């Protein structure tokens, strides 16, 4: 039977009522009392249990839904989402290998590939003349048949001529660069920022327009410290969390 202690009146001044409700549900999810796939009671029943109106309850549920912790299914109700996958923010790791190690079945789909003049903003990053030809590759990554990631690569044609003739669904782009073009990757500069899904991105990732995504921008360098590719990857915010390790604090 579903139970949840009503919010304490002593905390009303410290946090809005809907936040208290969201935190109570979050505690149950993190403790394992609510497991992935569990369905919450109907809104009417839950609001009566908590002694709050349905508007307040909906605001609380929306907080957790926006964090990817709850999922609403039309006509079925609200469910606890699958746990998020941890992504090491400071490492270049093969998506397929990383997902297989976690027990998922990954899949890569090539959405589009084209040769076109480089954008002015990326020409400087890649040390290319303005309007130099680049390959722009868009791929969708899925796990267990669910789309979770959009990858957009911008790659200089002059160094990787013929790259798009290789099977970019079956092979890693980095592996093709290393094997066919003898590139040794030395490092990458990455940045992370939260964004929301456009209509196009939402359709490909099978989420609602405006859903939270994590944008990872990447500039990779070879053994000679020359930039070789620019990446713009979009991860579903309800499926991934990004983690990093830091050194101990020093006074």
What does this molecule look like?
The protein is an alpha+beta fold and 251 residues long. The protein has helices at 17-31, 43-50, 54-66, 95-101, 120-125, 173-181, 199-205, and strands at 70-73, 77-80, 85-88, 106-117, 133-143, 146-156, 185-196, 212-222, 227-236, 240-243. It has a six-stranded antiparallel beta sheet. Helix 1 (17-31) packs across helix 3 and helix 2 (43-50) packs across helix 3. The longest helix is centred in the N-terminal third of the chain and has 15 residues, at 17-31. The chain is elongated, with a radius of gyration of 22 Å. The termini are far apart. 22% of the residues are buried. The mean pLDDT is 87.
* End-to-end CA span: 51 Å
Shape label: elongated
Rg calculated over all Cα atoms: 22 Å
Q: Order of SSEs, N→C?
A: HHHEEEHEHEEHEHEEE
Unreliable sequence segments: none
Q: Would you report the number of β strands?
A: 10
- What is the count of DSSP helices, taking H or I runs of 4+ residues? 7
Helix amount? 25-40%
* Widest β-sheet, arrangement of strands: 4-5-6-9-8-7
How much strand content do the residues show? 25-35%
Largest sheet: 6 strands, antiparallel
**Structural class of the helices, strands and pairings?**
alpha+beta
Mean pLDDT over all positions: 87
């Amino acid at each position: 039977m579903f139970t949840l202690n009503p919010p304490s009146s002593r905390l009303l001044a410290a946090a809005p009522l809907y936040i208290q409700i969201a935190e109570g549900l979050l505690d149950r999810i993190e403790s394992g009392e609510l497991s992935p796939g569990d369905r919450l009671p109907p809104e009417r029943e839950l609001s009566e249990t908590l002694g709050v109106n349905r508007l307040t309850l909906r605001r609380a549920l929306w907080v957790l839904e926006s964090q990817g912790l709850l999922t609403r299914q039309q006509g079925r109700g609200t469910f606890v989402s699958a746990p998020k996958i941890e992504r090491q923010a400071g490492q270049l790791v093969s998506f397929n290998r990383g997902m297989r190690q976690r027990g998922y079945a990954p899949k890569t789909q090539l959405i589009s590939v084209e040769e076109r003049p480089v954008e002015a903003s990326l020409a400087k990053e890649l040390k290319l003349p303005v309007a130099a030809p680049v390959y722009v590759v868009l791929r969708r990554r899925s796990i267990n048949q669910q789309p979770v990631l959009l990858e957009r690569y911008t790659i200089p044609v002059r160094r990787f001529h013929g790259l798009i003739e290789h099977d970019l669904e079956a092979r890693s782009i980095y592996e093709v660069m290393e094997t066919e073009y003898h590139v040794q990757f030395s490092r990458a500069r990455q940045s992370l920022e939260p964004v929301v899904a456009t209509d196009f991105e939402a359709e490909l990732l099978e989420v609602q327009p405006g859903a939270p995504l994590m944008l990872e921008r990447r500039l990779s360098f070879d053994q000679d410290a020359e930039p070789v590719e620019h990446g713009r990857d979009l991860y579903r915010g309800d499926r991934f969390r990004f983690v990093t390790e830091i050194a101990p604090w020093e006074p």
